[in-house]
Write a structure and sequence with these properties.
CATH superfamily: Vaccinia Virus protein VP39
Strand order of the largest sheet: 6-7-5-4-8-9-11-10
Number of strands: 11
Largest sheet: 8 strands, mixed
Distance between the termini: 51 Å
Structural class: alpha/beta
CATH architecture: 3-Layer(aba) Sandwich
Number of domains: 1
Shape: globular
Strand content: 25-35%
Order of helices and strands: EEEHEHEHHHEEEHEHEE
Helix content: 25-40%
């Protein structure tokens, strides 16, 4: 499928698929959408990392559904460095972008030009193994279809950033969200840019508690889902 590099309204780039008229990020602003959905309404909610019995800070475990251009990974790394909040990051992607496409993304230049080498490293590092990007950030990229995810009680936070329901409704099904529910730890959260009744119903069917939140610029609402386990 043909892929084009386009500029979004906040000056940041994304990849556009003309055949589907679908983009990897919002045309209203790739960076501002990523920060609004996944940092402000996702990572920032996990203010206090868990501490082990030995007094060590346990990393926040994040699963990204749709590694794509690496934008969400980059901004999560920057948050880990800024707040000294360790993160173990797993990005799942069935069809990785090419290194050339990734390096045409201007995210590092738009956010912090000193991090260009780190962004490049994220795309050059090996798949299917853990890569230490820094002392606070470990990245594992898995080349995998979302339907193949079998993790259980493994993640504190899921970034659900799949292509939209209009072009790939099968990625927003009851089965997919049941797998996401299993993958999260108790009281873990899932955030997504999307807000559609059928998606909310699929989340509810899986067992999530669901909230509508204000969306990123250009989108009225987004969804936050919580794996709230009831105590007997």
């Amino acid at each position: 499928m043909k892929r084009e590099i386009i500029q979004t309204k906040d000056g940041s780039t994304t990849i556009h698929l003309p055949e589907w008229n679908e983009s990897y990020h919002s045309k209203h602003g790739a960076i501002q959408e990523a920060y609004h959905v996944f940092i402000k309404n996702g990572l920032s909610l996990l203010e206090v990392p868990a501490v082990s019995q030995t007094g060590e800070t346990k990393p926040i475990a994040i699963l990204e559904i749709g590694f794509g251009t690496g934008l969400n990974c980059l901004i999560s790394y920057l948050e880990a460095e800024k707040n000294k909040k360790p993160i173990d990051y797993v990005g799942v992607e069935a069809y990785p972008v090419t290194l050339d496409e990734a390096l045409q993304m201007n995210y590092a230049n738009e956010i912090d030009p000193t991090q260009a080498a780190v962004f490049s490293q994220m795309h050059k590092c090996h798949w299917e193994q853990e890569n230490a990007i820094s002392t606070n950030f470990k990245l594992t990229k898995r080349r995998q279809f979302f339907q193949e995810i079998k993790d259980e009680d493994a993640f504190d936070l899921i970034y659900f950033d799949a292509f939209g329901f209009r072009v790939q409704p099968e990625l927003w099904s009851d089965e997919i969200f049941a797998a996401m529910f299993r993958a999260l730890k108790s009281n873990g959260i899932l955030v997504t840019y999307a807000c559609r009744t059928s998606i909310k119903n699929a989340m509810l069917s899986a067992g999530f508690s669901v909230k509508k939140l204000p969306g990123a610029p250009g989108k009225r609402e987004m969804l936050l889902a919580i794996k709230a386990i009831q105590k007997n």
